[in-house]
């Protein structure tokens, strides 16, 4: 039995063909915004930053033991990185609200008028909504955006939760205004490891489970039909919840996917990888997984795991985190 066949019948039957991306649903190509918004302030707002220093030096990128074929998780490489200041959590709704209040910025999701919401989070139910063929749990919801993560019929997002429904240009706009930038993949993995070296997760190598070991905000139960929420959440968690890693950073895996500064490319030098990169231009890299990840379907809440999506695509589990090249 397929995962999709376990969904409610009305959800399975009310779908439309929208460009598919496994973990992060993509907008149709014809709806891609043509011009990035440029009307933002190039300044740092006092009390915006909540940072921890991450030392530079030798860094690990990737893994020698990839789990998901085609994602480009291997090989394991050693690189050099500079010291950085990292936001302790993903950018919160409260932080993003300060940016919007100061600049009158309009996000891609607000401009286009809709975004993707997980079907069981849609207020009043998902019946009558459109979704992604093959990934019917993602529903196109008019008016869903960072202010109303589950759509306009739902509650306004709380300040301590991550800003979601964020496109790449939205994340870059905020980062520039705040005086920072998005991290590169090698910087992200170095920070996520928290000084532990070649480990699978920010806390070590022990796999989360559905009952006893719940170190991050991911799915427990049977995806996508039942989330027990034993970790305390069946959706996003506040950005500073759960224990931080060795560098004091929260939710480096789980909770929400985080945009990075890099395009999505396979690092292998094989002919097949070069062909894939040439044919798959345009997708951008996200790291960390989300509250919807589960080992049975999307085991991408590992440090070396990765996914890519078109830069204008937005959803209720996609956000970002800012880094700074100098001390706040």
TrEMBL record:
Residues 54-323 form the Sulfatase-modifying factor enzyme-like domain. This is Formylglycine-generating enzyme family protein. It holds the Pfam family FGE-sulfatase. InterPro entries: CTDL_fold, Sulfatase_Mod_Factor_Kinase, SUMF_dom, SUMF_sf. Coiled coil: none annotated. It comes from the Bacteria. SUPFAM superfamilies: C-type lectin-like.
């Amino acid at each position: 039995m397929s995962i999709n066949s376990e969904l409610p019948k009305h959800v399975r039957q009310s779908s439309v063909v929208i460009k598919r991306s496994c973990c992060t649903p993509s907008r149709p190509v014809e709806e891609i915004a043509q011009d990035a918004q440029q009307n933002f302030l190039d300044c740092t707002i006092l009390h915006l930053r909540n940072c921890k220093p991450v030392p530079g030096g030798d860094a690990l990128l990737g893994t020698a033991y990839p789990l998901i074929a085609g994602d480009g998780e291997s090989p394991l490489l050693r690189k050099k990185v500079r010291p950085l200041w990292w936001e302790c959590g993903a950018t919160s709704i409260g932080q993003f609200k300060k940016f919007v209040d100061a600049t009158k910025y309009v996000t891609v999701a607000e401009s286009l008028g809709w975004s993707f919401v997980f079907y069981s989070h849609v207020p009043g139910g998902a019946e009558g909504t459109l979704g992604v063929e093959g990934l019917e749990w993602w529903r196109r919801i008019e008016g869903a955006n960072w202010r109303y993560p589950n759509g306009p019929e739902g509650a306004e997002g709380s300040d301590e939760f991550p800003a979601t429904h964020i496109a790449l240009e939205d994340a870059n706009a905020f980062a520039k205004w705040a005086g920072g930038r998005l991290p590169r993949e090698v910087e992200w993995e170095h920070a996520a490891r928290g000084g532990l070296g070649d480990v699978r997760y920010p806390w070590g190598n022990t796999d989360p489970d559905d009952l006893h070991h719940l170190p991050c905000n991911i799915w427990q139960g049977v995806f996508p039909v039942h989330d027990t929420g034993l970790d305390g959440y069946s959706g996003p968690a506040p950005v500073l919840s759960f224990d931080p890693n060795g560098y004091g950073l929260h939710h480096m895996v789980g909770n929400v996917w985080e945009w990075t500064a890099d395009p999505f490319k396979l690092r292998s030098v094989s002919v097949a990888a070069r062909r894939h990169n040439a044919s798959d231009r345009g997708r951008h890299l996200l790291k960390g997984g989300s509250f919807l990840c589960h080992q049975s379907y999307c085991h991408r809440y590992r440090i070396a795991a990765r996914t890519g999506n078109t830069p204008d695509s937005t959803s209720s589990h996609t956000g970002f985190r800012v880094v700074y090249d100098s001390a706040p």
